[in-house]
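Cross-check.
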Amino acid sequence: MKNMITEDIDRINELIRLTEDDNVGQYIDSTYLKTSEQAGISDDETTKMVTRTIQDAMEHNMKLVMIRPEFVGLADQMIKEYDSALLVGTVIDFPNGDSELGVKMEEAMEAIRNNVDELDFVVNYKSFKDGDVDKVKEEVCEGTKLGIDEDRVVKWIIESAALTSEQVADLTGLIRDVVIECVGEQKASNVFVKTSTGFYKPEDGGPGGATVDDVSIMSINAGPLKVKASGGIYSREDLEKMVDAGASRIGTSAGLEIIKGEKADTDY
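Predicted model, tokenized:
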């Protein structure tokens, strides 16, 4: 109970600092993950979209830019040219998370060779739902060790909209326990659990991204891991609700609008 009270106080203090310092950009992982086909645009136009996302993130002091693996080198080059502190993250086994461990590890190694800062793995939540817990444990342990050994931040996307509340709690707790066992509690503070890919579409038409309830459940079950809320966050109000629920990072394609105090007119 004492720890829960302390965590609540810390969250309130974070919200106060967020309001007083207006340091909202340091919560934001500015995200562009659509392929050309998904966006209905050319490859050149996609490159321009990614370049603009990186540029905006640097100019507005955002924490990180989250892009597909093929653009990590471009981001690294731009950041060096501008002498920016912007971090670069990419997704691994995205968006389905059901590839074999070797595929996940090779994707992660390639991103590390391209100088990525943070690795967002999609956990094999389907195997978890099917009861194959050992498979999930193995990939979480090996993927986390790889990232931590290479001095990278690691995040595990659980696709919360595909899970019940009980499964969200159980999978978050499973990841927490495996991470602590494999890299230790101190290094576990460089690992996150993350809500969503932003690409999952529930059959019932409900929200496929982050919800306050899921973030709260994850926050309660994650410590000492952190929580990243991603998907469906389009305004400053949305961001503050997620921070209040326990998220310390926010993945959004509406970073610029949030910083400007606007609401993005988008479904991505």
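The two ends are 38 Å apart (CA to CA). The longest helix spans residues 2-21. Passed to J.P. for a second look.
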